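Follow-up to my post from last week.
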Amino acid sequence: MPQPGQALVRLREHLHQTRLLGSISSALYYDQNTVMPPAGADWRGKQLSLLASQLHERQSSETYTGLVAAAEAELDHSAPASTRRNLQLLRQELERQRSLDPQLVARLAVAQSRGNAVWQEARRSNDFAVFAPALEELLQLRREQAAQLAPIEPAGRSPWEILAQPFEPDVSKDRLQELFTPLSEGIPPLLERVRASPPAAAAGPSAPAAAIPEELQETLCAELLDSWGYDPSRCQRSRSAHPFSCTLGPADYRITSRVVPDQPFSAFLATAHEWGHSLYEQGLPRGDDHYFPWPLGEATSMGVHESQSLFWECRVARSQAFASRWHTRFSGALGSDPWGGSHSFWRGLNPMRPGLIRVEADELTYGLHIVLRFELELALVEQGLPVSELPEQWNRRMGELLGIRPQRDAEGCLQDIHWAEGLFGYFPSYALGHLISAQLAESMERQLGPIETAVGAGEESRLQRWLAENVWPLGRSVNGEELVAQVTGAPLSASPFLRYLSGKVDRLLETP
Amino acid sequence: MPQPGQALVRLREHLHQTRLLGSISSALYYDQNTVMPPAGADWRGKQLSLLASQLHERQSSETYTGLVAAAEAELDHSAPASTRRNLQLLRQELERQRSLDPQLVARLAVAQSRGNAVWQEARRSNDFAVFAPALEELLQLRREQAAQLAPIEPAGRSPWEILAQPFEPDVSKDRLQELFTPLSEGIPPLLERVRASPPAAAAGPSAPAAAIPEELQETLCAELLDSWGYDPSRCQRSRSAHPFSCTLGPADYRITSRVVPDQPFSAFLATAHEWGHSLYEQGLPRGDDHYFPWPLGEATSMGVHESQSLFWECRVARSQAFASRWHTRFSGALGSDPWGGSHSFWRGLNPMRPGLIRVEADELTYGLHIVLRFELELALVEQGLPVSELPEQWNRRMGELLGIRPQRDAEGCLQDIHWAEGLFGYFPSYALGHLISAQLAESMERQLGPIETAVGAGEESRLQRWLAENVWPLGRSVNGEELVAQVTGAPLSASPFLRYLSGKVDRLLETP
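User reply:
Got it. Predicted complex:
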């Protein structure tokens, strides 16, 4: 095997330090969201901003540009494909960083900060007009940014597509339409079946709202993680206002959750979800010199990341076999069974009813919330939808897709923070996660047999091993779609997810 | 008031960023010692080392040197004294940083790391010979460093004194001898009186070892802090293997403690101690532009810092009045009174018996442990004591001072980590803290009346206000000795501490 050239060694050293700085930022973020006292926020903001400017400098400086160019120049026919791929990914990111106009970046930072503040106010007062000018400005600035980035993007990429690249590399809106149309066509009939069923079977508001004491929820979350291979020598779990998972170093993984009053499964399912993210991070390739700190050792897309969290949350923790096992633990720990049996406990884990709020949506309706946002942000960014018409369009489309209409914009187009921070192109990854998880799960089942069987036997470690062998080590050697094609032998499609949903609805509506 | 000149403004900006970097380091340290999983240590070490090299660069670079020189050149007759003092302190520290030989610093880092590892091994196997060569090397390197620093130090400073400056600015060994001799003469007779008293009165091993459940200890610590003005919007409390306090930003203070099995008051007293450190940090001057991020806004010495922690631990939390109030809370929370009354509870808070281990020493004997170390490190650094004779000298002097002799070096000269890390000149600050605390307390009592009376009335906030008005705002405008002279009107002396000890022994030996 040829030795890496000198330029490659120097480049690696540079990337290593960049990783150190990036992970210091993550450590500060973790502290901020778990234990930092509120008055520390101002200084913490300054610390993070200092690190951000150091990071930007390291990722766009002449020095770094020279290192990349030298490594590229050093490439010869004997260079391994992994080196080529690493340099290709670094070059892409470098061009992106260097074509960002610092003045525009600064104007965006101001607009994002203002957008966030104004959005908070608009949501509080349920007054879209308060937010509209800020949204208009953010759209304008992002359009400008897309135009600046256009020359470095492959020909024909649209503004929205250019903005979506960092979240989902190589994504196109046509492809998303192709993937999402089956959702907007296939899910409403399923929803209709649930609606038409007797209330008890639908596990709707009539399901018992078991009150599980906070301490007990914490214990159950800890037990869940223990049973899924949580290793306290490499992992740490805390509480935070919003659950998240983050990586602080190559052997330092953190996850958080929080107990929500009147939502007995919220902390438990969020723990499963975040642990899925963390397992992916823990399983990324680090084994040889072509990975960490190189791009090949990174997560490939938001959609793939989300597929891993959704797999553990939805395919495992919300499965019937899992509910059956854990119903016993929950009831035992509570000293009573407020659900009246494991089938009803399982229904409690799987509410299926349309709601107005995305973050509270169930597996069945979640995708529709995304379709709505994808269509509308496309319309806003590049199809000329005036900002002033957003509430009306939101409410209309919500009615078509989910059969319900918000009475207040606070529960409609003002509910998410993403646009207020100028994030366009981010939402689709959430739905892609469902699709990818379902398609991977079908392949997994072809090889391992039904997931329900493995979970029923308490053999989640088999499922984990399959992901550890087939999915996680791919890193950024492939993009999200390529990953699915490579692992499952078929292009990504909505069919596995719709088949899964349909089967689940069938079983949920059955009388136990 | 004259406006600060341009050079001063640029220098301030530089210092501000240096503070940001330093506080990022503190945040990583805090995380490392509270929640970081063990496997994260390797990467964390690399993060800290990156920050350390950035900090060193910022504090010794040509750019920084130029900024300081420009600010000095800008000084004219109209410059306020605070500006002069700030520049004087910055110049001192800059000269120190610049005269450090990078090669020697690197050799020291290796020797410290090796020293630590070898010391762990020597302590485990109780074999001083394993540690001796590493100690010899560390002494040699530190002597070299002192020689390199000598040209920038005021004439006539000895090697040990040069090494001690960072901990206790302007300290001299003659002055320490003067302050410590009364301790080595005055404490043994007090110890003799305790020894001669009946065992029950001495609150020795016969005191009841109340078992206080961990949760309850945590609650009592939280109550203690609440009663002393702990503000959760600016402070945060965690657990760690060793208690510490640290400042993460101008409005972000952290303290930690830990519950020690069979030591019912350990967490409680450590909380009082660390809170004292934190109060000092919280009270340092930040109000105007001459302080934060300037040196004037910093703690002035280790001894003064320790005086603040010892004040709250010993003068307040170990006081009779405090014991009387908290005996009720402890017993109430426990649902029983294993002490059999508040006098015995107070004795439990104030064990008075000689032991071999410094970190377990009581108020009476602590100073003697320091005298021993001060004498021996002086002998090692600059009086030609061969390393091989250290154990024998340690044991002999321990016998003279405390009347007990270690049977094993692990409980003797191998017990502390300081020398293993090449820290010489650090120990005296611990004893200075007792002396300074006692002398400040006498002044406080002259103005406010007896501390016992204030504590008995639950009016610790009056004591705190006195410190907040008289001590904390001084920052580095004065060194430790100057601070004492300015606040108490008299030079620092051991007398107040000895008077305090003598009175306390009297009352502890009284039959209640």
